[in-house]
Design brief:
The complex is a heterodimer of chains A (82) and B (255). Helix content of chain A is 51%, strand content 0%. By secondary structure, chain A is mainly alpha-helical. In chain A, helix 1 packs across helix 4. The chains are: A mainly alpha (82), B alpha/beta (255). Chains A and B meet through loops of A and loops of B.
């Protein structure tokens, strides 16, 4: 998976078009990224990639780039650009 | 009620499942007469086309879909929005009934009924309410349940369970989606004469059918009776109503 594919995956989770998100996009600017949105993200990271977020991961995730960092850390993708 | 209420759905597109016959068809026709654009979902294309013709909606798309295949629902709804634009609402009228005693209601029978009545309904709602598919100002979701979600009758274990699940699930959904101004309601009809219920009645004795009739002080309902109530719950005229279960049963449950 490339970074752009990962961003598209995140966009799909939050029901947005991929071009609406960049690594700098903050959760405050993603309408679906609320407490229930976090649960949706957690459920999909687990079902699609086997990633189970820790409490620390959850606290640290504030931007799309933070989610990408988590996915990178768990080996979902290794590239740093699209 | 406003003077132009007959066009209250003008500019609004509503997905109707189970639109090929019975209650679903009557609802689709009723909504179209009030100006709604329609997305008609069902298994039988010819019958959906008959519904479309009867409805005469200016905006109408037929989606041939077997709701036992839930993986096809989101792609179909996305494709529809790409063509018609964002949606206003959903009416999940598709349903199946399998009148069987407990001894014959094995897991496969239960799952088959749950799949169409409950799982497909929830998946349709999940699709239609996606932020990129529903109108940003909100919308209206309606599930057609049954008074059998509230009262018990022999042979209706799978059906009652599935409709109870719909009613309870919709209530939770209403609380979750209210902040997006999406209303979620349930309509629970009593006995309505449709092809589906005729099949169910065919399995009963004359005495049992008469007993059922006696349960409804206003007699059995027609699909149009349900459609009028559905139109109200889907329309902006019920904009302060969410999480409700409107019983339309000819007085059955009032006794």
């Amino acid at each position: 998976m490339t970074q752009s594919e990962a961003v598209a995956w995140i966009a799909q989770i939050f029901e947005m078009a991929p071009d609406q998100l960049t690594p700098d996009t903050h959760r405050d600017n993603v309408p679906a990224w609320d407490s229930l949105g976090i649960l949706t993200l957690m459920a999909n990271l687990d079902s699609d990639f086997g990633i189970v977020l820790t409490d620390e991961d959850i606290q640290a995730v504030k931007t799309v780039g933070d989610i990408l960092d988590v996915m990178r850390r768990y080996g979902t993708f290794t590239s740093t650009s699209s | 009620m406003t003077g132009d209420s007959h066009k209250i759905f003008e500019g609004k597109t509503i997905v109707v499942s189970g639109a090929s016959s019975g209650i679903g068809r009557a609802i689709a026709v009723h909504l179209a007469r009030q100006g709604a654009g329609l997305v008609l979902i069902g298994r039988n294309r010819e019958r959906l086309e008959d519904t479309a013709q009867e409805a005469g909606a200016r905006v109408c798309r037929i989606v041939q879909l077997d709701l036992t295949d839930v993986t096809a629902i989101i792609p179909a709804v996305k494709e529809t929005v790409a063509v018609l634009g964002r949606l206003y609402g959903l009416c999940h009228a598709a349903g199946t009934v399998d009148t069987l005693p407990l001894s014959a209601t094995g897991p496969e029978k239960l799952q088959a009924v749950m799949q169409v009545n409950y799982v497909a309904g929830m998946e349709l709602a999940r699709s239609v309410t996606r932020r990129d598919l529903l109108r940003e100002e909100g919308g209206s979701i309606l599930f057609i349940s049954s008074i059998y979600s509230l009262i018990g009758k022999p042979g209706q274990i799978a059906y009652s369970g599935s409709k109870g699940a719909v009613t309870a699930g919709a209530r939770a959904m209403a609380t979750e989606l209210a902040r997006r101004n999406i209303r979620v309601n349930v309509l629970s009809p009593g006995m309505v004469r449709t092809e589906m219920t005729e099949r169910a009645l065919a399995g009963l004795s004359g005495q049992q059918v008469q007993a059922l009739r006696d349960m409804h002080p206003l007699g059995f309902g027609s699909p149009d009776d349900v459609a009028h109530a559905a139109g109200f719950l889907l329309s902006p005229e019920s904009k302060w109503i969410t999480g409700a279960n409107l019983v339309a049963d000819g007085g059955c449950s009032a006794q």
